[in-house]
Amino acid sequence: MSGDRLDLPQLGGGTFITDGGMETTLIFHGGIDLPHFASFVLLDDEAGRDALRDYYRPYIDIARANGVGIVIDTPTWRANQDWGERLGYSPDALDQVNRRAVALLEELRDGAGEVTVVISGCIGPRGDGYRADELMTIAEAERYHAPQVATFAGTAADMISALTLTYAEEAVGIARAAEDRDTPVVISFTVETDGRLPSGQPLREAIEEVDAATNEAAAYFMVNCAHPTHFADVFEERGPWLGRVRGLRANASAKSHAELDEAEELDEGDPLALAESYRELARRLPNLTVVGGCCGTDHRHIGAICEISTA
After folding, report:
1. What pLDDT is attached to residue 263?
2. Which end of the chain is more exposed for a tag (fewer CB within 10 A), N or C?
């Protein structure tokens, strides 16, 4: 990707895919142990990096075969202070692992040929992506996430994606930290089976709150880690906020987060049915350009979604 990185290509229209459920794919299909669901630990040795290369390449192939772009997230969803401490990583070690993550995606982009590859530094929540507990204030969230944001701002990452956020204040803090570093940021919220954030706030209110508190600093918003049946009705409520939703990364399973937490086997759902639901959602979201997956999805789901989105 060349030019000003504040000018993201997915904002110009067309279809961009993402990868699927990284951690669920690596664990259930790859048989890889990920402590605390942290895929960034694979960056510590060549065997782990090879596993990540093998994970990413099918998605780049899908983008190439369908003539679309791809937004690739670094495997750093857990690479923040609290989760790092649980796994024995110092702040300096976290800085280095986040940099290695971007370098790996640079390598893949260099080998992608004509495919437009957008590298996204992935930031996850401080706590659990399913629950809104131990809440931070906006200022606390900005301070907490600033180190990871600063690391990505000093790399070749084109943007930052904050995934599976469960309440608005943390989203505002991340958006402000990214704006301070002149780095594009995308905010993606987890929603429950009722279409509300785990905090109980309606999705529309959360998006409007973040925009109001940051003067629309986020490049766009996404919804992730939920099945379309959980949030489709939310998009029947009209208003300018709908235009701010440009991305969807749905779960393969229609189970609740509590059910998924207790499941010992992966519920892969139906890739074709999931893809059809994206077609329906696209009719309600005028600016939808980024389509991908979350828990339980893999290259089969993304391939089906991509084909329907470009038909």
Report:
1. 66
2. C
